[in-house]
Amino acid sequence: MRHDFLGHVTVVIVGGTGDLARKYLWQGFFQLYADQVGKGHTFSFYGGALSTTEKGTPLLFDILKELACPAELSVERCALVKDQFLHLSKYHQLKTTEDYENLSQQIKQQLGQEGIIEAGRLFYLSVPAFAYADIAEKINNTCRPPSEAWLRVVLEKPFGHNLYSAQALDKKLSGQLKEEEMYRIDHYLGKQVVSKILPFRKENKKLLDPIWNKHHIERIEIVLKETLDAKGRIQFYDQYGVIRDVLQNHLTEVMTLMLMNLPANLSNSEEILQNKLNFLASLQHVDNSNAVVGQYQAYNGEVQEELNKTKDYFSLTPTFAGVVIHVDNAQYEGIPIFMTSGKALDERVSYARVLFKSNVFCVQDPNNVQCKSKQIIFYLGHGTLQYPAILLSKNLFKPELVSSGDWKEVTEYKDVNVLGLPLSDYYIQSPVTPREAYCELISHVVFGRKDSFISAEGLLASWEFWTPLLEGLSRVFPRVYPGGVDNGNLLNFQLKGHQVAFSHEAVVNVINPGAEDNFQVMQGKYRSSEMVSAWAQELVERLASDLLLAAEEAIREEGQFHLALSGGSSPVALLLDERCVPHTESGSNFRSIHDLLLQHIRIPYFNIHPMPVHLTQRLCVEEDGGPTLYEKEIKKHVNGSSFHYILLGVGQDGHTASLFQDAKLENDEENLVILTESPNKPHQRMSLTFTAINRARRVGVLIMGKSKHELVSQLSRIKGESSKYPITKVQPKSGTLIWYIDYDALLG
Questions:
Q1: How far apart are CA 46 and CA 11, in angstroms?
Q2: What whole-number distance in Å separates Cα of residue 541 and Cα of residue 539?
Q3: DSSP letter string over 483-552?
Q4: What burial class does residue 367 get, using C-beta atoms within 10 Å of its C-beta: 0-12 exposed, 13-18 middle, 19+ buried?
Q5: Cβ distance 192 to 431 under 8 Å?
Q6: What is the pTM of this model?
Q7: In the Cβ-directed half-sphere of 335, how many Cα atoms lie within 13 Å?
Q8: Which strand ranges, in their side-by-side order, compose the sheet holding 521-526?
Q9: Start and end of every Glucose-6-phosphate dehydrogenase NAD-binding domain (predicted)?
Q10: Angle at CA 706, nearest 5°, toward 703 and 710?
């Protein structure tokens, strides 16, 4: 037991009548008191908040009266201990500097009257993070104990929302409090299974060391699934989202404990911290290509309601994320770490799993234990098992008990499966008595154990890893999912090389946009390709910018830029196809592009190549050989007949260029240009073929207007090609396809 604990401890919960205090903190401090009462230590407890004493006191005692008895206490003993605890607890308004000064005077007066030695003061800040710096200053200036006693200030996450805000918060706090006085709490580190990850690895080191590496581990999964939504927490949640709320802290801590180098001494918090920092420094950079994000369907309505937003407002905050992480060291190189969390999923469960490679092939008896998966699972609770446990496949080895006093081996098995195996196929260890994470961590604070808390260096190292991904995802559309079992396979994701993508196409991979002033241009995925979306004006500006960048790149590298434009009825008329009318007539695609574009830019006319639809005073007669002439022009001017950029539109029937549903295109695999027939007048057309289009370095597809909304929805449901929708045949062989879809077309 720590010597610095002897004497009187004053506990102050700032925000003592709030939701966290009601649910967890007062129960945790009651458990602490029940554990320590009669052992020579004394306490006083204060619940502080902004309300006056008259308003705050009844609120506090409503909470205290509901406290549950610890399991180890008899009913009679609990009644006595609870009565003592209530007498030691009082409300104190904490709003101004004067309030904190009054509290300090009250503490000193009590100690003087009772003639007891002060061990220390514990302030638990159960308040929004923006209030930390101000409260820390008040504590520092008015409530410090004498030099021989300790001061400990507990801080709840979030500790910033990116690296820069975390650095700023740390700078403010470190100006008022010493690092050893700050206890940044992550309640996951108080979960009984998480707290035993390092001891489990230590106890089984001889058997784990040979297999805890890239030669034996196939993959690692770290999962936190929730069935609840964010309703009631929107004001906080919409600023942070699932990655900041769960992955950056809880799941990163679990990953670190699983894969960091084992410290020689598990009680040495400095060694544990250094090993954590070394591991975080070895993580490979993650960006958009390593992650997928989603948002449950009802979330945006909840945002509008709780934040008083208009019906045309929408949020890009993800409520689901899947990330694949790799470690850049010799031990774990190449092992994918699948990390995922989400709200409104099909079950509530949290676990970390190490899945090992198998070198056994079973010709017969596949149910033999040696033929089954080899895995170690740190099961945090809920799900099919319902209790926290460490499970190890029997075809690996029999592990040492992680802690002989407070853990047990489970030998009675329920008829359930855990991650593919029946319980009887595992060696299982579980805590003798379940304890809440906050109860564990509150005890650690009082005893000065810092190994279960987040250091400033560890916090900043974690934010340094996650911030680039968060910045990259800030303007990416999350995939919308219905919630619960209806999600089906919509959120399944897969790893291809180091690229992460959803395994299945979404029907429409976006959410409802809002007023035009909310944002400019957003990015997402559509039919497995990149998609750019915005209101019409911003979309055209973005398209023009992309075209300019492509032109500059081509000219810089090759000295020339070849662009093919399609005609059509899009709001901006853009020539890789032509109607069989003279170029001087208004129905001509060339005439439209000339009037709207070409006459306004400085480009030599000999660099413009309209399609030869009008030869020998006839329009699109096959014997005149117009397609052959144009194909020769392409081969003459365009290297490898591969345009740098082709810009297409799409008709409401799914045609593109002048390639229609009933066109007989299968015999034109070698031709670059053909004559086609349109169902609309003028019926005769000339067009580039899909062969020519799919040779392009870049292909852009522009879809605009509410009249195209149904088409956009239909196309999103189609996998691969469909003869009904010719646009689906646009699949550049080695180039890039980008969809430019305005919000009217996207969402109707």
A1: 6
A2: 5
A3: -GGGGTTTT-EEEETTEEEESS--SS-------GGG-SEEEEEETTEEEEEE-HHHHHHHHHHHHHHHHH
A4: exposed
A5: yes
A6: 0.71
A7: 28
A8: 521-526, 529-534, 736-742, 698-703, 645-649, 563-565
A9: 12-194
A10: 80
- Going 211 to 213 to 218 to 219, the CA torsion angle's sign is positive
Burial of 115 (0-12, 13-18, 19+ CB in 10 A): exposed
Give 10-residue mean pLDDT values along the chain (748 residues).
66 95 95 85 93 94 92 88 94 96 94 90 94 96 94 93 94 96 95 96 96 96 96 92 96 97 91 95 94 92 90 86 96 97 96 93 79 93 91 94 88 86 93 91 93 94 96 86 90 91 64 43 83 86 86 88 70 48 67 62 69 74 84 88 90 85 63 85 83 93 88 84 89 93 83
User: Is the CB of residue 528 less than 8 Å from the CB of residue 738?
Assistant: no
Residue linked to tokens 């345009």: 643
pLDDT at 262: 96
Other C-beta atoms closer than 10 Å to the C-beta of 352 total 24
The torsion defined by the Cα of 187, 190, 193 and 199, in degrees rounded to 10, comes to: 130
Count each helix (H run) and each strand (E run) in the chain, helices first: 22, 31
Residue type (1 letter), 109: Q
Residue 102 neighbours by CB distance under 10 Å: 15
Amino acid at 472: G
**In what helix (H) or strand (E) does residue 200 lie, and over which residues does it extend?**
helix 197-203
Q: At what angle do helices 456-473 and 163-174 cross, to 10 degrees?
A: 150
CB 86 within 8 A of CB 45: no
In this prediction, residue 637 carries a pLDDT of: 87
Nearest to 465 by CA among 354, 585, 328: 328
Residue 643 region, left (φ>0) first, then alpha (ψ -120 to 50), else beta?
A: beta
Q: Please state, in angstroms and rounded to a whole number, the distance separating the CA atoms of residues 449 and 462.
A: 21
Which residue, 349, 403, 354, 426, is CA-closest to 195?
403
Dihedral sign (CA 198, 199, 202, 204)? negative
Q: 721's torsion region: left (phi>0), alpha (psi -120 to 50) or beta?
A: beta
The secondary element (H helix, E strand) that includes residue 596 is: helix 589-596
For 444, half-sphere exposure in the C-beta direction (CA atoms, 13 angstrom radius) is 25
At residue 276, φ and ψ (nearest 5 deg) are -65, -45
Q: Which residues belong to the active site?
A: 250
Instruction: Specify whether the CB–CB gap between 427 and 462 falls below 8 A.
Output: no
**One-letter amino acid of 77:** R
Q: Give the integer Cα–Cα distance in Å for 687 and 673.
A: 6
Please give the angle made by the CA atoms of 499, 532 and 481, to the nearest 5 degrees.
65
DSSP 126-169: -S-GGGHHHHHHHHHHH-PPPTTSEEEEEEESP--SSHHHHHHH
Residue with tokens 């991650």: 419
Burial of 5 (0-12, 13-18, 19+ CB in 10 A): middle
The tally of CA atoms less than 13 A away on the side-chain side of residue 499 is: 5
> In the 3-class helix/strand/coil scheme, how is 424-484 assigned residue by residue?
HHEEEEEECCCCCHHHHHHHHHHCCCCCCCECHHHHHHHHHHHHHHHHHHCCECCEEECCH
What is the rounded distance in angstroms from the CA atom of residue 560 to the CA atom of residue 373? 58
Type of residue numbered 97: T
